[in-house]
Specification:
Blueprint (H helix, E strand, L loop, with lengths): L1 E5 L3 E2 L4 E10 L2 E2 L2 E9 H6 L7 H5 L37 H4 L11 E9 L5 E7 L6 E10 L4 E10 L3 E5 L4 E3 L7 E6 L4 E9 L2 E9 L2 E6 L8 E9 L2 E13 L30 E2 L5 H13 L6 H17 L6 H20 L17 H18 L5 H4 L4 H6 L5 H13 L5 H14 L3 H4 L19 H17 L8 H12 L4 H11 L3 H9 L7 H15 L14 E5 L5 E5 L4
Organism: Escherichia coli
GO molecular function: endopeptidase inhibitor activity
Pfam family, one: A2M
């Protein structure tokens, strides 16, 4: 038997609750292991207790007869609907005043205390304490336990949190510039004809109102002229004693549609004016001076991309894998968050897969695209390698099945990228590389294509928009040269065509082209930083993710740089990619 006892039956919010637990067997104290929870009783109004009595659970009655039952009784915790048709019930409309009854204020806390492991002493006693939350409700204390001999028991007790006088806001907290808020609040009273004083403060001004309350909810209009953002506080006094106090932050936002803006600011010693537009909000300060910071900022931007197609999901898995590898402690809270995001995006890819594990843009019906399929498999391989999920080598071989069928109709750039991923995954692709090299040799006789002036915008996507353009073919040529060198194979492409391709890729304004050139000829920190600086949020996610992944090895050789913290009301915030930014938390 488990007995639960509190020092009082009623508490005010913020009071310390003392709970005494007593375990006994046949009236004699016994030591036992207990688990105790204190839960808002309204939770059980939404969903009755699922767990059966602990005694019936561990020691159910054994039966030797056969009984027939319907599996429908197990659906939705014995709440299955009858299959027999019934007449619709009559409506029972309520008056408007009944529908709009004001409820007591509640904090977003449904569990006041949780003690997963308590042990009673030889006298069968155990104690614990907790602070009563701000919710005004009835609380249920449930204790379940087992002694050393395997005997079980449970006990239950109830207590209330209440106040004779308390307040609750009855107004929005966000307004548009030019609005004239009708500020007000409710005061709840348990007695009739209660004399009280209400003191409200806003923007340095204090207002005092003397009131006489009736029993129940009393709506009080506030007299403050609120025309700006700030903290509004209210204090309820009776006989010179503070009975309750609440506060809320009011915000006035600009009428125009919010647009995210980014600007570069050269910082010097002393004060630096940021020159922000009026009504600017969510102000963040990130360093873009060092390659490490540029790299991390791009990682975080990719992770925050909201779209859920194959391209974007794979483009999130790549930076998440890089962020996981950069963590020093894989048991930290940040590591758990990143691992969960990796698992969620891997699950998203599985949901997008079609027959034969082939992929279309959004998982719609149709023949899978070889390039999208390879991208999804490659992103999943990167994530699996990062978090230590092992698969047989034959498993990843399926990535090349659709490539073998569609290679002849694919752009050269897509073919080169697929084989670059396959080579990184240690898949057998030498024969496929020879076929790609021969295709480039046949295409490479058109050297005039490589001499055309490139006028494309830096944000245009080579992979998605113009995969068959002369620049895309040049990038494919340079990337294939790199792959052949790693595979110790010779190219059949004429040297002058290769040189044209290399020059065209190196002289373009595309970060992906510069990354491929860097892989082919090697580079240093300066070149890496220049490529990273050219990555923008307007560029396609797949090209940014590829550039980040291929440039990651150059980041490991760069010494870290510690930047000074900005002075003022700036708060440091850790980002998913391992970097940090500073967020404005001050006024104005």
């Amino acid at each position: 038997d488990i007995r639960v006892k509190t020092d009082k039956t009623h508490y005010q919010p913020g009071e310390l609750v003392n709970v005494e637990l007593t375990s006994s067997l046949k009236g004699k104290p016994v030591s036992a292991q207990l688990t105790v929870g204190v839960v808002d009783e309204m939770i059980y109004a939404l969903q009755p207790e699922i767990a059966p009595n602990i005694g019936k659970f561990f020691y159910p009655l054994g039966r030797n007869n056969v009984r027939t039952s319907s599996s429908l009784s197990f659906i939705s915790y014995d709440q299955a609907l009858s299959s027999e048709p019934v007449a619709p019930g009559a409506t029972n409309p309520s008056e408007r005043r009944v529908k709009m009854l004001e409820r007591p204020r509640r904090e977003e806390v449904d569990t006041a205390a949780w003690m997963p492991s308590l042990t009673t002493d030889k006298q069968g006693k155990a104690y614990f304490t907790f602070l009563m939350p701000d919710s005004l409700t009835r609380w249920r204390i449930t204790a379940r336990g087992m002694n050393g001999d395997g005997l079980v028991g449970q006990g239950r007790a109830y207590l209330r949190s209440e106040k004779n006088l308390y307040m609750k806001w009855s107004m929005p907290t966000v307004y548009r510039v030019g609005d004239k808020p009708a500020a007000g609040l409710f005061i709840f009273s348990q007695q009739d004809n209660e004399p009280v004083a209400l003191v409200t403060k806003f923007a340095g001004a204090e207002m005092r109102q003397t009131l006489t309350l009736h029993k129940g909810a009393n709506y009080i209009s506030l007299t403050q002229n609120i025309q700006q953002s700030g903290l509004l506080s209210a204090e309820l006094q009776q006989n010179g004693q503070v009975q309750d106090s609440i506060s809320t932050k009011l915000s006035f936002v600009d009428n125009s549609w919010p647009v995210e803006q980014q600007k570069n600011v050269m910082l010097g010693g002393g004060d630096n004016a940021l020159m922000l537009p009026e009504q600017a909000s969510n102000i963040r300060l990130q360093s873009s001076e060092t390659p490490q910071e540029i790299f991390r900022n791009n990682l975080d931007a990719l992770v925050d991309e909201p779209w859920g197609g194959v391209i974007n999901t794979g483009s999130r898995l790549i930076p998440l894998s890089l962020a996981w590898r950069s963590l020093a402690d894989h048991q930290s809270a940040a590591a758990n968050d990143i691992r969960q995001m990796i698992q969620d995006n891997r699950l998203r890819l599985m949901q997008l897969a079609g027959p034969g594990a082939r992929f279309t843009w959004w998982g719609e019906d149709g023949n899978g695209d070889a390039f999208l399929t390879a991208w999804a498999w490659y992103a999943d391989w990167q994530a699996s390698q990062a978090i230590g999920v092992t698969q047989q080598p034959e498993y990843w071989q399926h990535m090349l099945d659709s490539y073998a069928e569609q290679a002849d109709n694919m752009p050269l750039l897509h073919r080169a990228l697929v084989l670059a991923w396959a080579q990184e995954m240690n898949l057998p692709c030498k024969t496929l590389l020879k076929g790609l090299d021969e295709a480039i040799a046949r295409r490479g006789t058109k050297t005039e294509d490589f001499s055309e002036e490139d006028t494309r915008d830096i944000n245009d996507s080579l992979i998605l928009d113009t995969p068959e353009s002369p620049l895309a073919d040049a990038v494919a040529n340079v990337l294939t040269m790199t792959l052949l060198k790693k595979a110790q194979l010779k190219s059949t492409v004429m040297p002058q065509v290769q040189q044209y391709a290399w020059d065209k890729a190196a002289n373009s304004n595309q970060p992906l082209a510069h990354t491929v050139v860097l892989l082919n000829s090697g580079g240093d920190a300066t070149q890496t930083a220049a490529i990273l600086s050219g990555l923008t949020a307007e560029q396609s996610t797949i090209e940014r993710a590829l550039a980040m992944n291929w440039l990651a090895k150059y980041m490991a050789t760069m010494p870290p740089v510690v930047l000074p913290a900005p002075a003022g009301a700036w708060a440091k915030h850790k980002l998913t990619g391992g970097g940090e930014d500073w967020r404005w938390v001050g006024q104005g």
